[in-house]
């Protein structure tokens, strides 16, 4: 009898809470009205965790499907709002920029690696770096310096390497080749030091390359944990992945600090054209802050352009007609020269290559190097499409979903068609709020022009001189700091006869 009086109310309470949960669950799963954003049903107590656990491995595809089924192009999976709606992007990236800084969780996850560098800071600290870097990025001397480094890396390393592979018939991982190219390039630009990774000529350079790669991958692994407590606890216990992260960061920080110290000395005697010399010369910042600034720049240049080019070559392997059009564009530009030689194209010639520019832009539309961009809402807010955002929630726009949205690109959005960017033979840029590949608003990518110069120079050199045959058709992505190709891109190279 006594047992009954204890158990009955408990069971009744349990039944009621299950019933209440079921009502909530089904109420929320009702389809949205024609003008409302989709809100995913969440479970009591555990919220949306099961959705993230179930779909975490296919986050891009899952969120793209959800967004496509929402009338506004926005879906709430609290505490995250995923959107592919250009008016929402404009709202968070520009109009209401102050309310949407980088989130505290993200900053703390990447702090050990990136410190207070431009990618990992907000407010005054970010603004200071942004102003200094914007100035440097806009100097003519920097552009000339970039092209000079690209030319050296292409003519002295990339082309000889491809010729050797062509002769021997060996299979190359093009993604790895492009990543090594980009790392040499960005380190020369940032530190004035050439790690010679493409030529495999420097032990220090190789150590730096691997440590940087490992630190990037392991920091991303931290970010993928459902709760930051997990990596914080692992760090405290010095478990395997955190130990490896600590060791790789020690290598990266040690080498960069060494460069900073030596360049400080040199800058007093005149300095060079690289970023470090320019920052070191003003003497206003600590070595540690300069180290953080530089690491962010290496990260920006190391992953993005090779990822973009890897997908570009993968797409081109099934588009011979596009390859022919690019080759024709190069041939016409070359024919306008007085002296035909096989040197890399000049800055003006690269700028003239509108069709190649369009083909690269089109490839990044479908395979954006940075597919998602999160920010955190400081205050409660309402997005232009009516979606409610609570204080502390993340608003994440999906460049991946936007590139595949019929509402933005039309019914042929799934087709690779560089012509969509051309009008009367001239490249037509898209609004950065619709084409968010380089982000938009005050934090828009600083290296966009530099990235196009590099990508066009490399793509033109390879396509002009070589046939690239994809040996194994992989085409799956792996979400790291950028959307890399899982397992790389194995290719066979054949030298072309262009005389
Ligand atoms: C295809 C190549 C590239 C793509 C698609 C790309 C894309 C992006 C994106 C999406 C952002 C915003 C990231 C965020 O705020 O979380 C960004 C920021 C940035 N990018 Fe790029 N990027 C590329 C190449 C480069 C290169 C070569 C550099 C030069 C080193 C560079 C420098 C930067 C910098 C400094 C920022 C930070 C801007 C800020 O926070 O104010 N990017 N880029």
UniProtKB/TrEMBL annotation:
<comment type="similarity">
    <text>Belongs to the cytochrome P450 family.</text>
</comment>
<keyword id="KW-0349">Heme</keyword>
<protein>
    <submittedName>
        <fullName>Cytochrome P450 94A1-like</fullName>
    </submittedName>
</protein>
<keyword id="KW-0408">Iron</keyword>
<dbReference type="InterPro" id="IPR002401">
    <property type="entry name" value="Cyt_P450_E_grp-I"/>
</dbReference>
<feature type="binding site" description="axial binding residue">
    <location>
        <position position="445"/>
    </location>
    <ligand>
        <name>heme</name>
    </ligand>
</feature>
<keyword id="KW-0560">Oxidoreductase</keyword>
<dbReference type="GO" id="GO:0006629">
    <property type="term" value="P:lipid metabolic process"/>
</dbReference>
<dbReference type="InterPro" id="IPR001128">
    <property type="entry name" value="Cyt_P450"/>
</dbReference>
<dbReference type="GO" id="GO:0020037">
    <property type="term" value="F:heme binding"/>
</dbReference>
<dbReference type="GO" id="GO:0005506">
    <property type="term" value="F:iron ion binding"/>
</dbReference>
<dbReference type="InterPro" id="IPR036396">
    <property type="entry name" value="Cyt_P450_sf"/>
</dbReference>
<dbReference type="Pfam" id="PF00067">
    <property type="entry name" value="p450"/>
</dbReference>
<dbReference type="GO" id="GO:0004497">
    <property type="term" value="F:monooxygenase activity"/>
</dbReference>
<dbReference type="InterPro" id="IPR017972">
    <property type="entry name" value="Cyt_P450_CS"/>
</dbReference>
<keyword id="KW-0479">Metal-binding</keyword>
<dbReference type="GO" id="GO:0016705">
    <property type="term" value="F:oxidoreductase activity, acting on paired donors, with incorporation or reduction of molecular oxygen"/>
</dbReference>
<keyword id="KW-0503">Monooxygenase</keyword>
């Amino acid at each position: 009898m006594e047992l009954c009086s204890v158990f009955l109310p408990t069971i009744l309470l349990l039944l009621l809470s299950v019933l209440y949960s079921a009502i909530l669950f089904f109420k929320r799963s009702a389809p949205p009205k024609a003008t409302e954003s989709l809100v995913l049903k969440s479970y009591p107590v555990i919220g949306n965790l099961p959705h993230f656990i179930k779909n975490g491995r296919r986050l891009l595809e899952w969120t793209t499907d959800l967004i496509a089924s929402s009338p506004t192009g926005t879906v709430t999976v609290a505490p995250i709002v995923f959107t592919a709606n250009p008016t929402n992007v404009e709202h968070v990236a520009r109009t209401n920029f102050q309310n949407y800084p980088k989130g505290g969780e993200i900053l703390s996850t990447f702090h050990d690696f990136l410190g207070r560098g431009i990618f990992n800071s907000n407010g005054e600290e970010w603004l200071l770096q942004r102003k200094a870097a914007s100035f440097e990025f806009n100097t003519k001397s920097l552009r000339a310096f970039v092209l000079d480094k690209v030319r050296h890396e292409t003519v002295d390393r990339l082309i000889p390497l491809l010729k050797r592979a062509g002769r021997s018939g060996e299979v190359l991982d093009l993604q790895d080749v492009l990543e090594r190219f980009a790392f040499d390039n960005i380190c020369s630009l940032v530190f004035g030091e050439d790690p010679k990774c493409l030529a495999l000529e420097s032990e220090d350079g190789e150590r730096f390359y691997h440590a940087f790669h490992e630190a990037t991958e392991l920091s991303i692994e931290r970010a993928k944990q459902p709760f930051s407590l997990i990596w914080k606890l692992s760090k405290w216990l010095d478990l395997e992945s955190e130990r490896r992260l600590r060791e790789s960061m020690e290598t990266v920080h040690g080498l960069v600090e060494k460069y900073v110290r030596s360049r400080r000395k040199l800058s007093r005697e005149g300095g060079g054209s690289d970023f470090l010399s320019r920052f070191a010369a003003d003497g206003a910042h600590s070595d540690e802050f300069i180290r953080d600034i530089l690491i962010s720049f290496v990260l920006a240049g190391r992953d993005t352009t090779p990822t973009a080019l890897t997908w570009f070559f993968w797409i081109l392997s099934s588009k011979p007609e596009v390859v022919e059009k690019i080759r024709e564009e190069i041939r016409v530009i070359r024919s306008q020269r007085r002296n035909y030689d096989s040197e890399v194209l000049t800055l003006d010639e690269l700028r003239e290559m509108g069709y190649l520019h369009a083909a690269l832009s089109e490839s990044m539309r479908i395979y954006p190097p940075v597919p998602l961009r999160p920010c955190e809402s400081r205050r409660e807010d309402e997005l232009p499409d009516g979606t409610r955002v609570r204080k502390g929630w993340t608003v994440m726009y999906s460049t991946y979903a936007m590139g595949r949205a019929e509402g933005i690109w039309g019914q042929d959005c799934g087709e690779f068609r560089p012509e969509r960017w051309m009008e009367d033979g001239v490249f037509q840029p898209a609004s950065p709020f619709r084409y968010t590949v380089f982000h938009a608003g005050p934090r828009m990518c600083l290296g966009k022009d530099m990235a196009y110069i590099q990508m066009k120079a490399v793509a033109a050199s390879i396509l002009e001189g070589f046939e690239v045959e994809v040996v194994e058709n992989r085409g799956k992505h792996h979400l790291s700091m950028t959307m890399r190709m899982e397992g790389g891109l194995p290719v066979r190279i054949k030298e072309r006869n262009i005389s």
